[in-house]
Design brief:
It comes from Falsiroseomonas bella. This is Aminotransferase. Keywords: Aminotransferase, Pyridoxal phosphate, Transferase. This protein has 400 residues and is of the alpha/beta class. It folds into two domains: 246 residues, 3-Layer(aba) Sandwich (Aspartate Aminotransferase, domain 2); 133 residues, Aspartate Aminotransferase, domain 1, CATH 3.90.1150. The protein is globular. The protein starts with 17 loop residues before the first helix and ends with a helix. The structure holds pyridoxal-5'-phosphate. The site of pyridoxal-5'-phosphate has 16 residues, from helix 3 and helix 4.
Length: 400
């Protein structure tokens, strides 16, 4: 018999392991919570986390900051974005992406996405030519990775620099290469709902020595940038140190201490998430009236959420479907909602933009798109109960 209600919190963040709790407690006892110190040297947890993350991704440099949003802002600045510039971005993402562009004083230009929830490369080419934009902030939103070979070839042809938003793709790859290693810089999040839960934090990886030095200085290193380990040479800092404002966006050593042991758990976490996602995808995909995005073979995703479309429902029935699922503990989010809700929003909600509009194809796709978090703690057996609730509530919403 199927349950009438799911007795699980789908919003539960990944558990913080004992090793991380012990590391945080040790740090608290010593008081070294700020990552720099006149007598500290280069062994702060923040410096060590950066070194470990750079090594894990095969990147030359890594800069820790207080959020992925800050990492994206600094990556844009370091790529040469100036106030008034136009920056392309895909229309399926979350508000910190246009926010990072606005933070740099630039103007987002929204590009369409495909039914499979990745940036539409034909529209990207069109919008690049029409806008003259030289920068793309590409969001691998909800873990959906575009064909990165085609995308990078296109961006090279267009002379466009790419920054990757990897808030949802830590540990994910395209054709064997980690996301964040295609563009000029990759930006990751350590916020609680991400693959590593440090509460807050961001990591920027790059092989570009000028971008790295500028990001370290702008993040608020003062003249203590020598305490970074995954950093460029002091000669590079000499070029930028008097030309770079301090925006004080530092990564706290406390967050880094909580994150470091979790980095070592990423492969195991990816295994669990992939298993739960595969089960849910098979079950939900078999429900009449539900469509899942196609995932290409080159994509090795680490899905901490699942997206599906219910294309047959008009907005009124959609609201009924969501309410029915939520009442039974299956908390679905909807990208087609009239107003922004929780973490979820769409370009038409960002009314500070000059052109706050979701482009038409993306609007149609988001109108029927549902999103569900997959907590790491989700037992495999619960996937069947979730799918049963979704199927029953969809059927109920379809009734006249
Ligand atoms: C797609 C996407 N990009 C970037 C971010 C920004 O991450 P942070 O909260 O660390 O700034 C988020 C946060 O939820 C996100 O969902």
């Amino acid at each position: 018999m199927q349950p009438s209600r799911l007795a699980l919190d789908l919003g539960a963040p990944p558990e913080v392991p004992e090793e991380a709790i012990a590391a945080a407690a040790a740090l608290l006892r010593g008081g070294w919570l700020h990552r720099y110190g006149e007598t500290l040297g280069d062994s702060s947890d923040a410096a060590l986390l950066e070194e470990e993350f750079a090594a894990a991704l095969g990147a030359r440099y890594c800069v820790g900051v207080n959020s992925c949003g800050s990492a994206m802002f600094l990556a844009l600045l370091g790529s040469g974005v100036r106030p008034g510039d136009r920056v392309l971005m895909n229309g399926f993402t979350l508000s910190p992406v246009p926010g990072a562009i606005a933070h740099a004083g630039a103007e987002p230009v929204i590009v369409e996405v495909t039914q499979d929830l990745v940036i539409d490369l034909d529209d990207l080419a069109r919008q690049a030519r029409a806008s003259g934009a030289r920068h793309l902030l590409l969001s691998h939103m909800r873990g959906h990775i575009a064909d990165m070979d085609r995308l990078m070839t296109l961006c090279d042809e267009l002379g466009m620099s790419v920054i990757e938003d990897c808030a949802h793709t830590m540990g994910a790859r395209w054709a064997g290469r980690p996301t964040g290693r295609f563009g000029r810089a990759g930006c990751f999040s350590l916020q609680s709902y991400k693959h590593v839960n440090a509460g807050e934090g961001g990591l920027l990886v790059t092989d570009d020595e000028d971008l790295a030095a500028r990001a370290i200085l702008a993040s608020g290193s003062y003249m203590l940038y020598g305490q970074h380990r995954a950093r460029p040479s002091k000669e590079v800092f000499a070029r930028w140190k008097d030309l770079t404002p301090n925006f004080s966006l530092r990564l706290s050593s406390l967050a880094a201490a909580v994150a470091r042991p979790q980095l070592r758990l990423l492969a195991e976490r990816a295994r669990v998430w992939s298993d739960r996602h595969a089960r849910l995808a098979a079950l939900l995909g078999a429900i009449p009236g539900i469509r899942l995005p196609h995932r290409p073979q080159q994509e090795e995703h680490v899905q901490s959420s699942i997206q599906f479309a219910a294309p047959g429902l008009d907005p009124e029935r959609f609201r009924r479907f969501l309410a029915g699922c939520r009442a039974r503990g299956v908390f679905l989010k909807w990208f087609g909602a009239e107003a922004a809700e929780g973490y979820t929003s769409a370009p038409r909600h960002w009314r500070y933009l000059r052109d706050a509009r979701t482009p038409p194809h993306t609007e149609a796709i988001l109108a029927t798109l549902c999103d569900m978090r997959i907590p790491l703690s989700l037992p495999a057996e619960a996937c069947g109960s979730i799918a049963a609730i979704v199927a029953e509530e969809l059927e109920a919403a379809q009734r006249p």
